[in-house]
């Protein structure tokens, strides 16, 4: 009912009487009034007058009903410890491919290498449940496709030159804009699900907590519509996953990277190595040329551009 009322208010774009709403929806005016009250409590700016109801401007809510065609796939929460945990539970229970868990803020947002991911209001924090029919050894390709699609989407939506840093960070002017964390489960060598968690600084200012991070609003000087960006990203990714051969994922990712050719520092649990990032191989590993000319294959770690 809430969705239908919102739809009518949006279509009307003007004042609509309670009587008109109740006759269009076949419910009493009291029922309409109760739903309007709930919508107002959810944050919708609906003004009420003796003539009826009107909805002001477009909002940037991330409620499931604001994703037409995807309502059943979107799981929205005002706050969660981490979308990763909620998504893992849903994936294990059989939630379909391209389900997405969104939180307006996270209390225990996780980053790679046991780091914390600060998740204040204004950013986009979500985990996608993907079920590509691929062997587990190829699961990493999904991360590469996802980060290229995210870079493409940010470029299209904002005009900013988003670049990817190995393995899956998105940078703007060398500052971190987005990070990605993935979890995979497999059965008999085939992927059951790959959950991709994305933290994207949109209208929040992450620099207070992470001095080397940035956000879209910071770079543009004004906030943007998060939901449009997210819908564009989900649409593009769905199309890519439906039509593309994942084998070219690393190749596509290379178009957007600024890591290759750079002097980098790699930090792993085993220690720190410095060298020149010469390429990314077909397994997604970073090929690092050390000072003595030998090339080392780096499978996992934090990469810092020097
Ligand atoms: C990183 O760069 O270290 C990865 C950051 C991933 C953060 C996202 S926010 C949504 C999802 N939920 C989490 O707890 N983490 C990921």
Question: Can you describe this structure in just a few lines?
Answer:
This protein has eight helices and 14 strands.
SSE blueprint and pairings:
Layout: H1 2-12, H2 18-25, H3 29-41, E1 46-49, E2 52-55, E3 74-80, H4 83-92, E4 99-106, E5 124-130, H5 140-158, E6 163-165, E7 169-172, E8 175-187, E9 190-200, H6 216-220, H7 226-243, H8 249-254, E10 263-268, E11 271-280, E12 286-289, E13 295-298, E14 302-305
Parallel strand pairs: 3-4
Antiparallel strand pairs: 1-2, 4-5, 5-9, 6-7, 7-8, 8-9, 10-11, 10-14, 11-12, 12-13
Helix pairs in contact: 2-3, 5-7
Bound molecules: biotin.
Residues 82-84, 106, 109-112, 115, 117, 119, 125-127, 169, 179-181, 197-199 line the site of biotin (BTN).
Tell me the fraction of residues in β-strands, as a range.
25-35%
Structural class designation: alpha+beta
Percent helix among the residues?
Answer: 25-40%
- The Rg value, from CA coordinates, equals 22 Å
Oligomeric organization of the protein chains: single chain
Chemical compounds bound to the protein: biotin
Second-tier CATH architecture of the largest domain: 2-Layer Sandwich
**How many E-type strands?**
14
| General form | elongated
Strand order of the largest sheet: 3-4-5-9-8-7-6
**Count of the domains:** 3
């Amino acid at each position: 009912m809430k969705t239908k009322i919102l739809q009518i208010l949006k279509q009307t774009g003007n004042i609509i009487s309670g009587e008109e709403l109740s006759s269009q929806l076949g419910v009493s005016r009291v029922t309409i009034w109760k739903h309007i009250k709930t919508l107002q409590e959810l944050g919708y700016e609906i003004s009420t007058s003796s003539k009826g109801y009107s909805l002001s401007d477009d909002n940037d809510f991330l409620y499931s009903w604001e994703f037409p065609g995807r309502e059943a796939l979107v799981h929205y929460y005002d706050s969660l410890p981490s979308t990763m945990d909620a998504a893992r539970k849903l994936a294990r229970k059989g939630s379909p491919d391209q389900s997405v868990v969104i939180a307006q803020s996270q209390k225990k947002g996780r980053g790679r290498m046991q780091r914390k991911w600060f998740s204040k209001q204004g950013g986009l924090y979500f985990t996608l449940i993907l079920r590509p029919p691929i062997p587990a050894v190829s699961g990493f390709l999904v991360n590469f496709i996802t980060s290229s699609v995210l870079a493409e989407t940010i470029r299209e939506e904002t005009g900013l030159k988003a670049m990817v840093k190995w393995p899956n960070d998105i940078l703007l002017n060398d500052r971190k804009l987005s990070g990605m964390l993935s979890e995979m489960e497999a059965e008999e060598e085939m992927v059951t699900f790959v959950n991709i968690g994305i933290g994207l600084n949109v209208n929040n200012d992450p620099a207070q907590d992470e001095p080397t991070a940035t956000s879209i609003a910071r770079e543009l000087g004004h906030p943007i519509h998060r939901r449009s960006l997210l819908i564009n990203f989900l649409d593009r990714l769905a199309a890519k996953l439906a039509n593309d051969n994942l084998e070219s994922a690393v190749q596509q990712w290379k178009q957007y990277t600024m890591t290759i050719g750079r002097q980098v520092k790699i930090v792993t649990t085993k220690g720190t190595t410095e060298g020149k990032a010469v390429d990314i191989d077909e397994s997604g590993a970073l090929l690092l040329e050390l000072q003595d000319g030998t090339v080392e294959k780096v499978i996992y770690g934090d990469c810092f551009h020097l």
